[in-house]
Each structure stands twice: as C-alpha cells, then as structure tokens.
Amino acid sequence: EGNNLTYTVSLTSGTTIASTYAYTLGGGTATATSDYNTAPTFSNGVSLVGSNLIVPAGVSSFTVTVGTVDDTILESATAETVPL
Predict the structure, then answer these.
(1) What's the pLDDT score for residue 33?
(2) Predicted model pTM
(3) pLDDT tens, position by position, 3-42
(4) Gap between the terminal Cα atoms of the chain
(5) What whole-number distance in Å separates Cα of residue 78 and Cα of residue 84?
(6) Using alpha carbons only, how large is the chain's radius of gyration in Å?
(7) Side-chain half-sphere of 49: how many Cα atoms within 13 Å?
(8) What is the per-residue pLDDT across 40-75, written as a single tens digit (0 to 9) for each?
(9) Got the DSSP string for 29-74?
C-alpha cells in the first residue's frame, strides 16, 4: 500500500499513426479511491482522453502507473487489471 503499480504494455507492432485504444481500470478486487487512485500516468507520450488511450505514432510499448492508497486498514491482498 502507498506505492505505485506499474504495468508495461507492449503492442504487437509499433504504431505508424496515432492510435486509440479503449481504456478501463478495474475488473479486480481492489476498489477505486479506497485502494488506488483513479488518475494514472503514462509514459512515451501516451495520454488518456475520456476513456481512450491515445498512443502516438512510433510507440511500441509504454507504462501505465497507478498510485495505491496507503490507509490504516489491514486487509488481504487485492488485485487490479488494466484491460485494453
């Protein structure tokens, strides 16, 4: 808790033009705002517009970093996924 979760996303091939992918954070056992922050950051110029990731031309991989909430609650392990 209180650390960052970093996911590495590798595309099958690099983009030749800016590409858009649907983005959601969820599907695991963790709860938004209680267990993790809902404002992720991205590397390599990738940006989030609404619920879409915009991946610039030439990018073949990037990271998604999600901050976790450090609270005083002792809880079992939780999980989160980034389906694209």
Answers:
(1) 74
(2) 0.76
(3) 788 989 999 887 899 999 998 877 677 777 777 777 899 9
(4) 24
(5) 20
(6) 14
(7) 9
(8) 999 999 999 999 999 999 999 999 998 888 877 666
(9) S--BTTTB-S--EESTT-EEETTEEEE-TT--EEEEEEEBP--S--
